[in-house]
Amino acid sequence: MGYGLRLTKQRLSITAVTSKRRLILWLEILNFEGDVRTFHLLAGWILGLIFGVSAQISGFCLRQAICGQGGQRGSAIAIWLSALVCAVLGATLAHSFNLLSIETHRFVTPPLPILAISLGGLMFGMGMILTGGCVSRLTVLLGSGNLRALFVLLVFAIFAHATIRGVLAPVRLAVGNVTLDVPLSSIFDQPVILWSILVLLCVATALAILSARPKMSYVAFGCVIGLVSVGGWMATSTLLVDDFHPLPIQSASFTLPWSDSLFWVLASTSIPAGFGVGFIGGALLGSLLSATIRGKFRLMSFGSAPQTLRYFLGGALMGVGGVLAGGCTIGAGLSGIALGSISATLALVMIILGGVLVTHVIERG
User: Fold this and answer.
1) Is the pTM of this model over 0.85?
2) How many CB atoms lie within 10 A of CB 80?
């Protein structure tokens, strides 16, 4: 049994290398330059397109799972858990067969910036409730014609970029210096814990589906979204890697990609587009195509000045919070947890806590 498993792993590793060579060969045949950044851009665009279509059809949204009403909330929980299970299971299998190489990624390297993640997660969760959706959901809504989403995303991208490289960067550095040494950064190194968590997630997902009875097609699209995050990790860590021109390992995410997309739009002649820019572009196009074909494209705008102020505040909170937490509900909550990351798990917990707190305040008037 053990010999057979090792032989299967070796065959899959050989298959991964062969697939990478074939992919590069086909791209060269199609007159793509042998630049790995171009390949990352294309991979991000394809995965973003799949994400946009899947999220638009299924209504994939963590905010709805936190503060939705009745059956809508139960359905949102089931869809989100389905995506999480598929992401964790897919990444676990890919890692066990050497199709992932994420040992140097910040999600799985100590120490743990506990203050930044906790504070950022709370801020992001609060902003998510104020704006009517997290960044991924707003991206899909923008593709569906929602002009409020456009306003929030611009505010979000500006504040995120200011926190990464602008006037708020000193705040990020100061908060990030408060760290905690943890003996374990990723549960990939603890198979018993990992598979136990997977079993619990599968049970929770099954119970959520049986309780809410969502459309199974929506659950299937949720699974596709989970696999999109796995595809991003595989593409940028093993399949599309150039040892002479290394690029960051990335996957489905919206915080850094929206910041990069804004900067690229303003200075594209000096800043090349990469995986993140491609992913945002694909997500917008996918949601636009899906909404148009399904007759769901509707132009929407603000109804009052107080509503505009509320959305501005929510976008700013998500911009700063997403950077401090190390990602959004997708970047940390889905893609990060798929890697078994302790920091990403903490970020998602704090995002949910921030969302619950603001929901409670709003419900009390």
Assistant:
1) yes
2) 25
